[in-house]
Specification:
There is one protein chain. The protein has about 100 residues and is mostly helical. Helix content is about 60%, strand content about 0%. The protein contains 3 helices and no strands.
């Protein structure tokens, strides 16, 4: 039986080590699912990066008749994110109301 002769301090160190190992395995698993995007261009050029990302999404639009709406935001700014979602919901609602001649 492993750990039967360990002191309380050694058992606590062992428990902490096991938790660290579990967290490292979870982090490694999560890292495999991440999408990493390398932006090449002028250093600290946020506008160039934004144009690049926007073009990348626009190029994926197979139906050029459909509009791609874009909005750049900081993902940590929750108020900005709420504004974007509200605007998207409003746009979808307005389009559906027009489509069914309700406005």
């Amino acid at each position: 039986m492993a750990g039967c002769c360990l002191s309380a301090e050694d058992r606590e160190c062992q428990r902490i080590n096991q938790e660290i190992e579990r967290q490292l395995r979870r982090d490694k698993k999560d890292a495999r699912r991440e999408l990493k995007l390398l932006l090449l261009g002028a250093k600290q050029d946020a506008e160039s990066a934004k144009r690049f990302i926007l073009k990348m999404y626009q190029d994926q639009n197979p139906d050029k008749e459909k509009t791609v709406y874009s909005h750049f935001t900081c993902a940590t700014d929750t108020e900005n994110i709420r504004f974007v979602f509200a605007a998207v919901k409003d746009t979808i609602l307005q389009l559906n109301l027009k489509e069914f001649n309700l406005v």
